[in-house]
Amino acid sequence: MKLIGAYSSPYSRRVAITLRHYGIAHDMKKMTPFGDAKALLRQINPVAKIPILALDDGEFLTESQVILDYLDTLVPEDTRLTPATGPERRKIQNLCGIASAAVDKLVTVLYEFHFRPKDMVYKPWTKMCDEQTADGFKWLDAQLDNRRFFGNQITQAEITTAVFWQFAVEKRVRFCERMNCSQLQALSEEMEQTVPFLATTPEGPIRDGMTLGTRA
């Protein structure tokens, strides 16, 4: 199978880390949904988003949560990062959902300032997004106990939250420092030293002059 995306995308990265955690063989085709690449991505995914997982039979899966659900079916049930059923599955999905919402709002603010002229940025909107990001990450920090959501085990919640927090710190370090999320920071620092995380180092910040792309 082939993963289409970029490690600079936290959604692509959590899929790449999960593939490596499970030891699933795959190729990586690095693409971002900007400029000329957007038209190519649209041929596979009508909304030109990453990540995309291309299966060996020609099928394509889109949206990281859908891909993660599929990857869980490829490994023994007792090794899955998210159980197939039950309250633990719901809790993990809820934790990942809050982390996803928090980073979505952070990305919204990043794009607002990167792509929109400064004099057209609507500050009440970005302030609200910042509040939602901070509230989400602070809530996640409060759920952690010694860098874990569930005793000593690693679940998809730890992986996803660590990836999203690392992304937030990379993009807006002072904003994250003000949150004082010590548990999230400790979790992220621990996970970033593991083999799957070290093998998927993000490529870097948004490049200046990057265009959104047009329809081909």
Question: What is the topological layout?
Answer:
Layout: E1 2-5, H1 10-22, E2 27-30, H2 37-42, E3 52-54, E4 60-62, H3 64-72, H4 87-115, H5 123-143, H6 156-171, H7 173-179, H8 182-191, H9 195-198
Parallel strand pairs: 1-2
Antiparallel strand pairs: 1-3, 3-4
What does this structure look like?
With 216 residues, the chain is α+β, with helices and mostly antiparallel strands. It has 2 domains: 2-79, Glutaredoxin (3-Layer(aba) Sandwich); 87-195, Up-down Bundle (Glutathione S-transferase Yfyf (Class Pi), Chain A, domain 2). The chain is 53% helix and 6% strand. It contains 9 helices and 4 strands. Strands 2-1-3-4 form a 4-stranded mixed beta sheet, covered by helices on one side. Strand 1 (2-5), helix 1 (10-22) and strand 2 form a beta-alpha-beta unit. The longest helix has 29 residues, at 87-115.
- Corresponding CATH architecture of the largest domain: Up-down Bundle
Distance between the termini: 27 Å
Kindly provide the name of the CATH class of the largest domain: Mainly Alpha
- What composes the largest sheet? 4 strands, mixed
Strand content: 5-15%
| Overall geometry | globular
DSSP summary: helix tally: 9
Condensed summary:
The protein is of the alpha+beta class and 216 residues long. The chain is built from 9 helices and 4 strands.
Give structural attributes.
Glutaredoxin; Glutathione S-transferase Yfyf (Class Pi), Chain A, domain 2; 9 helices; 4 strands; 216 residues; 6% strand; four-stranded mixed β-sheet; alpha+beta; globular; 2 domains
